[in-house]
Design goal:
Oligomer: single chain
Strand content: 15-25%
Strand order of the largest sheet: 1-2-7-8-9-10-11
Structural class: alpha/beta
Bound molecules: MU-OXO-diiron
């Protein structure tokens, strides 16, 4: 059965939710599924904005046929070629012969790589600022390379200022009937997962996102229609634009302490908990503590983009840094996180090296890192005669908050 929803009289959401997938990109745990959004505009000409993941192919085509109500399809606008949105391009071409594929030169190259579609026959190649009239509705195209793939573009419907923004401004989470941001408390319902989505999927490309935000500056927008998650309208638009400014500039959202530890037998964990308690005694609020072995790194990454002060505690293992911490730090480096104040606690029973491995990794891999104090080095466990050093470490962190 079709499951469409109207965006305006002429524009219909034809996407769907997928709650069977457990790992997005086979990496990121999904707590309540994900949506793949696609949109149909009906005017003198008809246009489909993007397709959907193969997981919802049947629902997608049922929705598409219902929205078109027997009409053909003149254009398929391809804003993004990652398979969670492009999987059905070949089938769209088979079901709607004569459809023109709208995208840039890079889009056409990727269509040829992913699909057995001869784009020489059906391509409508666009460049920055080009427009396409559908009748009363008109589309303008903005190239947004590396947000987060090279072919990405945004499409603005100019008669109503509705922006189709590819992956940008999206979030994890399936729909529960409501598809608009103002049908609930956006910050309460979506912010945590929007942050986890942005930081892990797009986080590396802050400079490119900053360029995208500059292009959008001053552009009145009545709605933002991303490829995942709710359609933004009302206050959510400026709310999320402001978050994107912070995230893409690697500016913390809040001054606060995030403690990430990894621990083999609980001794490093104990040191992390002692530090958290010392910080609390010094008035630090909203402290976050995570075990890198049991908390998925995508959650820690999201929190690291949010917090200003990052404290890492980990033991030595195989004469190196314990792997769960290595994974978290390497992912932070790969995602270009920067401009943070950090502190380090290492542990090792006979030849501790985890503290120096963490310091080297942070100093060499991340820009704008300030080490607040010399690393605290434990021998097997935190002992009473090291409490003075621990208190000094807590003082350094609390004083800089
Ligand atoms: Fe939702 Fe980059 O694909």
């Amino acid at each position: 059965m079709e499951c469409t929803q109207k965006i305006t009289d002429a524009i219909t959401w034809v996407g769907g939710s997928d709650r069977r997938k457990s790992l997005f990109e086979n990496l990121f745990p999904l707590k309540n599924g994900v949506t793949y959004n696609a949109y149909v505009i009906k005017d003198e000409k008809t246009a489909l904005i993007d397709t959907a993941d193969s997981a919802i192919t049947e629902q997608f085509f049922e929705n598409l046929a219902f929205a078109l109500k027997g009409r053909g399809l003149d254009y398929l606008v391809v804003n993004h070629m990652e398979p969670d949105h492009c999987a059905n391009i070949g089938e769209v071409c088979r079901r709607y012969p004569g459809v023109r594929l709208v995208g840039n030169a890079k889009t056409m190259q990727l269509i040829g790589q992913f699909h057995d579609v001869d784009t020489a026959e059906c391509a409508h190649v666009v460049q920055e600022g080009d427009t396409l009239s559908l009748g009363e509705h008109s589309l303008r195209f903005f190239m947004m390379p590396m947000v987060h793939w090279p072919e990405v573009m945004f499409t603005l419907e100019t008669s109503r200022n509705i922006l189709f923004s590819a992956d940008a401004f999206g979030t994890f989470g399936g729909f529960c009937g409501n598809i608009f941001s103002d049908q609930g408390d956006y910050a309460d319902l979506y912010l945590e997962e929007a942050r986890r989505y942005y930081t892990n999927i797009v986080g590396k490309f802050g400079a490119q996102v900053q360029a995208a935000l500059k292009k959008l500056a001053g552009q009145p927008l009545s709605m933002i229609c991303p490829l995942h998650g709710p359609i933004l309208r009302g206050e959510a638009i400026s709310f999320l634009l402001e978050k994107y400014q912070l995230w893409s500039a690697y500016t913390p959202e809040k001054q606060g302490a995030l403690i990430v530890y990894a621990s083999i037998y609980g001794h490093t964990e104990n040191a992390a908990q002692v530090l958290a308690g010392e910080l609390s005694r010094r008035g630090v609020q909203d402290i976050r503590v995570y075990d890198a072995s049991s908390t998925h790194y995508s959650e820690i990454i999201a929190r690291a983009f949010e917090y200003s002060h990052l404290i890492f505690a980990a033991p030595t293992y195989n004469m190196h840094l314990y792997l769960p911490m290595e994974t978290v730090l390497q992912d932070m480096i790969d995602l270009n996180l920067q401009n943070r104040k950090v502190a380090i606690i290492g542990n090792g029973s006979w030849a501790p090296v985890s503290h120096s491995a963490m310091e080297k990794k942070l100093r060499e891999g991340m820009k704008g890192i300030e080490l607040l104090a010399p690393p605290l080095v434990l021998r097997s466990k935190l002992r009473q005669d090291q409490m003075e050093e621990m208190r000094k470490l807590a003082d350094s962190i609390a004083d800089s908050l």
